[in-house]
Design goal:
By secondary structure, this protein is an alpha+beta fold. It folds into four domains: 89 residues, Orthogonal Bundle (Arc Repressor Mutant, subunit A), CATH 1.10.10; 96 residues, no CATH class; 114 residues, no CATH class; 118 residues, 3-Layer(aba) Sandwich (Trna Endonuclease, Chain: A, domain 1). It is built from 20 helices and 16 strands. The strands form six sheets. A five-stranded mixed beta sheet has the order 12-13-14-15-16. A hairpin with a 5-residue loop joins β8 and β9. α4 runs antiparallel to α5. It starts with 21 loop residues before the first helix and ends with a helix.
């Protein structure tokens, strides 16, 4: 005869502490209901728990402490013991905004490389990014996401932050866009190089190969000459290129130089070649027929500094020229411009400066004396990425480790305001603008001069 729960197991739960056997009882009941539709009797539950029949009273007390919390039953009705199951909560669909931006940036970069007649076929990354963007807006009941391709390209030229979900991204400037002057923006390029294993995923392979080869063979000076060459002379006459291949410091890197520099005419079908006043690299024609640098920051700086335009050359003249590949330009030439600029400004003060010391362990070693050294990494970013900042290593052999940004980035980065929150997570590294580093160096030198007087 099935066991009917006695009056002792009344409906009201007794507020006593849950016993240490709670989990065991729950597991036993879960196993029981995998096989049976009805609940067990006390005798059957004792067997499931490997208890003796005489321990039914003990089991009753345990069940009573769990009643209304984990289990329930109907008084005097057999086989009604059951687990209390809360309605499962549907997991909230979450689409990280940062991941969506990476899809969009990569898709735009791939789309930009397509010939005009091929651009109707969107790259998969761009399709995924647009779909995720629309779905994110749908889930957040936001109406700022573009719903068509023309709307997307129009949106891509407006500040990213106008897409409401993007406002959750910390340190995002109010004026950065994905497309600027018809070209993929610096901000979009930066999103291409954020995330895990950045260097291996994105950095131009030739640069990585040169770095590894020079480290393996202790070619410190060769590496330095190579980096200065691709930064200061991204476009070079063929006769100079041939001469450099035979230079003592560059001869070990001959094969890499041949990969880094290609024929200028192979890079563009233009009849006339235009060059950026700042970086000297070949410009691209905009949709309105004008020409602009592949790095939009160069255009802004050229206008701000009132740099005179570079002379154009014909295609016939271009046939005698070599140029670094777009990858070398993006990840070697452009970063190197600010690194060399800061090194030169500090050197003018009489400080000893070494570029890319220990074969690019960091960007600048600044030596005031044997006891006072600075280690500096220069970053020309359009967006402050905390994860990327944390990848920079503090140099215990230097008295200061700085991450330094161009002053021209202050408006969008807000270094002076945001560093107070960021620096505590950077293990002693300080964030500075170039002008601040130069000013601090001047102060140190003035104090040293005064002490010697």
């Amino acid at each position: 005869m099935p066991y009917s729960y006695p009056d002792g197991l009344r409906k009201e739960a007794i507020p006593v502490k849950v016993t240490r056997h709670r989990e065991k009882i729950i597991e036993a009941l879960q196993e029981w209901f995998r096989v049976h539709k009805e609940g067990p009797t006390l005798e059957e539950l004792c067997i499931e728990l490997e208890m003796q029949p005489r321990q039914k009273a003990t089991l009753q007390r345990w069940l009573q402490t769990m009643r209304g919390v984990d289990v329930e039953w109907e008084d005097h009705v057999p086989r009604t013991l059951h687990l209390i199951r809360e309605e499962p909560v549907e997991p909230e669909v979450q689409i990280p905004v940062t991941e969506t931006l990476r899809y969009l940036a990569r898709g735009l970069a791939e789309w930009e490389k397509l010939e005009p007649e091929q651009r109707a076929n969107l790259p998969q990354a761009l399709r995924l990014g647009m779909s995720r963007m629309y779905l994110t807006s749908l889930l957040q009941k936001d109406e700022t996401a573009p719903e068509s391709l023309p709307e997307f390209f129009q949106w891509a030229e407006t500040p990213v932050i106008e897409w409401t979900p993007a406002q959750e991204i910390q340190n995002l400037s109010s004026d950065v866009t994905l497309i600027e002057d018809g070209l993929i923006s610096d901000f979009a390029h930066q999103w291409l190089v954020t995330g895990e294993d950045v260097e291996r995923q994105v950095q131009e392979k030739v640069l990585q190969d040169v770095l590894e080869y020079c480290r393996a063979n202790q070619l410190d000076e060769s590496y330095r000459v190579f980096r200065k060459l691709i930064t200061e002379r991204p476009v070079i006459p063929y006769k100079d290129y041939r001469r450099l291949l035979s230079k003592d410091t560059l001869r070990p890197l001959r094969n890499y130089l041949q990969q880094a520099y290609v024929d200028l005419v192979d890079l563009s079908a233009d009849r006339t070649f235009h060059f950026c006043p700042r970086c000297q690299y070949i410009q691209r024609q905009r949709s309105d027929g004008s020409y602009g640098c592949r790095n939009t920051a160069c255009d802004r700086l050229s206008a701000k500094w009132k740099l005179p335009p570079q002379a154009t050359i014909t295609r016939e003249q271009a046939e005698t020229m070599k140029v670094v590949t777009p990858g070398i330009y993006r990840y070697g030439t452009i970063p190197g411009l600010w690194e060399i600029h800061l090194a030169e400004e500090l050197s003018k003060l009489g400080v000893r400066v070494t570029l890319w010391p220990q074969i690019d362990e960091f960007d600048l070693l600044v030596e005031f004396s044997r006891k006072l050294h600075w280690a500096i990494d220069v970053k020309d970013w359009s967006y402050l990425d905390k994860e990327r900042l944390q990848k920079v290593q503090y140099r215990p052999d230097a008295q200061e480790t700085f991450i330094v940004f161009p002053d021209s980035r202050e408006q969008e980065l807000g270094i002076k305001v945001r560093r107070e929150k960021l620096e505590p997570s950077l293990n002693g590294i300080r964030l500075k603008l170039i002008s601040e580093v130069i000013a601090e160096a001047k102060t140190i030198l003035q104090k040293r001069k005064k002490n010697r007087a």
